[in-house]
Amino acid sequence: xxxxxxxxxxxxxxxxxxxxxxxxxxxxxxxxxxxxxxxxxxxxxxxxxxxxxxxxxxxxxxxxxxxxxxxxxxxxxxxxxxxxxxxxxxxxxxxxxxxxxxxxxxxxxxxxxxxxxxxxxxxxxxxxxxxxxxxxxxxxxxxxxxxxxxxxxxxxxxxxxxxxxxxxxxxxx
Length: 173
What we know:
Number of strands: 9
CATH class of the domain at 37-97 and 154-168: Alpha Beta
CATH architecture of the domain at 37-97 and 154-168: Roll
Oligomer: single chain
Distance between the termini: 60 Å
């Protein structure tokens, strides 16, 4: 048996450690943190399991910590890394909020297209700032229409199946 010299042993240990690390896979990528650019896919379902929307095959990108996605979803994604998946339940208070019974507005009937004058009809309204918001016809009166301004998903518990596709760490400013 051949004897190894004192200088050869550290080199051999480094080689063994390097092989062991390579077998475990490369080090994990960056974790989602405030300022990270995050690309992810999700399937959003209601409490009954009905799919409401999906981005599968069309990843969604946002900047973490900027309030660009639902607060409950953003909180659940924090710390995840590319390739990770998670099931997330978002209660109304961390999603689109609870239903606000006072979120109504009464408008003249002539402002509503005649072919949509049906209780429960979903419409898009333009706010004074030019933003488009979904509204629902709650009540039709003689000369006016009562619109429900709550988001259609207000008061709903939402379930997300999330997969993180890519995480870019925050850039220094």
